[in-house]
């Protein structure tokens, strides 16, 4: 079978039309006919080989929405024509201790959709069937793609840290990840505080669900929030004055990092004295993704997106890199339709 896609031939190069052939579908895989695919910052890091793991030709795309177009002969639970979403993971081994304990997103033998495989900027993409998630009927197929990487990345910490409706949570950085975090946490019932360096985002942050909005450039404001939050969720990808944020945590609570800053420089005493911790997480396991989709369906949560046709993928990447995307970018597959 010949697949049409957009690929970069070298690190940092523009994407161009690219065709490749695939062998027979594996028994535990499904093939998805791509209708929409989000662009994530990880696609940009991978395009430039900033993590040293990119293989070229490189086809990005790991926020896929489309219909199942073929199923391997072991696949019972998905039907041809059914809408599914696919995120970062394409495969997990099912037998390591992480998989067996429900943490398939931490599988050490797994495969990612865009690492050593061709991703979703294509007319078709394949994955192990457990990583293709049926879409609840009321989700908007045009905007649901970003839930599968950006969305689950900020939903997972709510589950991992047992966040309750009575909790106070701060979200640092109001961009692609942060705006979804505000929506989730507001619907979860929390008191939600947005911390941003851009005061122009206040109005929208409040519309997304923030009860409070503070300019995080003002260190007096951060100091006034000492011992306030049950979780501080860092979605920005810049190095912060980490101690100032750690001091806003209540005792026993966690600074949870999902944005790719370079490093954390933090004093030890505020951690030891109040049993605070620092951690991070990648996307989420299949059970958590299913829970997120159910939650979005019930609370009508959808990412705020800007749409480009796939044929203008290079413009879309430039827009992402400019930092002006509001708030996630999705590509509409127009392969063969131009
Ligand atoms: Zn991603
Ligand atoms: Zn595994």
Summarize the structure.
The protein is of the alpha/beta class and 338 residues long.
Q: What can you see in these coordinates?
A:
The protein has 338 residues and is α/β, with parallel strands linked by helices. It folds into 2 domains: 2-148 and 284-332, Alpha-Beta Complex (Quinone Oxidoreductase, Chain A, domain 1); 152-280, Rossmann fold (3-Layer(aba) Sandwich). The chain is built from 10 helices and 17 strands. The protein has helices spanning 41-47, 97-100, 150-160, 176-188, 202-208, 219-224, 242-246, 269-273, 286-299, 313-321; strands at 2-7, 16-21, 29-39, 64-71, 83-86, 89-91, 111-112, 124-128, 133-134, 168-172, 191-196, 212-215, 229-234, 249-257, 277-280, 305-309, 328-332. Strands 3, 4, 5, 8, 9, 16 and 17 form a 7-stranded mixed beta sheet that branches. A 6-stranded parallel beta sheet has the order 12-11-10-13-14-15, covered by helices on one side. Strands 1-2 form a two-stranded antiparallel sheet. Helix 3 (150-160) packs across helix 4. The longest helix has 14 residues, at 286-299. It is globular. The mean pLDDT is 96. The protein binds zinc ion (2 copies). The site of one zinc ion has 8 residues, from helix 2.
């Amino acid at each position: 079978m010949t697949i049409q896609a957009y690929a970069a031939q070298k690190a940092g190069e523009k994407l161009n039309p690219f065709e490749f052939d695939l062998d027979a579908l594996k028994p535990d895989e499904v093939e998805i006919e791509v209708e929409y695919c989000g662009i994530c910052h990880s696609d940009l890091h991978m395009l430039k080989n900033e993590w040293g793991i990119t293989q070229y030709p490189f086809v990005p795309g790991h926020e896929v929405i489309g219909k199942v177009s073929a199923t391997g002969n072991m696949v019972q639970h998905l039907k041809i024509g059914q809408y599914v979403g696919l995120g970062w993971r394409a495969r997990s081994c099912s037998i390591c201790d992480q998989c067996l304990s429900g943490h398939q997103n931490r599988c050490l033998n797994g495969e990612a959709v865009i690492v050593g495989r061709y991703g979703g900027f294509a007319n078709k993409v394949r994955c192990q069937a457990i990583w293709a998630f049926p879409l609840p009927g009321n989700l908007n197929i045009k905007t649901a793609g970003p839930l599968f990487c950006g969305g689950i990345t900020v939903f997972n910490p709510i589950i991992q840290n047992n966040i309750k409706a009575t909790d106070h949570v701060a979200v640092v950085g109001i961009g692609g990840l942060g705006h979804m975090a505000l929506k989730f946490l507001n619907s979860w019932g929390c008191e939600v505080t947005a911390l941003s360096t851009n005061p122009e985002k206040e109005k929208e942050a409040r519309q997304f669900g923030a009860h409070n909005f503070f300019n995080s450039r003002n260190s007096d404001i951060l100091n006034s929030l000492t011992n306030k939050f049950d979780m501080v969720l860092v979605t920005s990808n810049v190095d912060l004055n980490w101690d100032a944020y750690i001091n806003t945590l209540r005792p026993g609570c966690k600074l949870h990092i999902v944005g790719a800053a370079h490093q954390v420089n933090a004093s030890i005493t505020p951690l030891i004295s109040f049993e605070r911790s620092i951690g991070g997480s990648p996307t989420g396991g299949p059970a958590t993704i299913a829970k997120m989709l159910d939650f979005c369906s019930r609370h009508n949560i959808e990412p705020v997106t800007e749409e480009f046709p796939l044929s203008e993928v290079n413009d879309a990447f430039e827009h992402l890199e400019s930092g002006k995307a509001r708030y996630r970018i999705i590509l509409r597959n127009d392969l063969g339709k131009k």
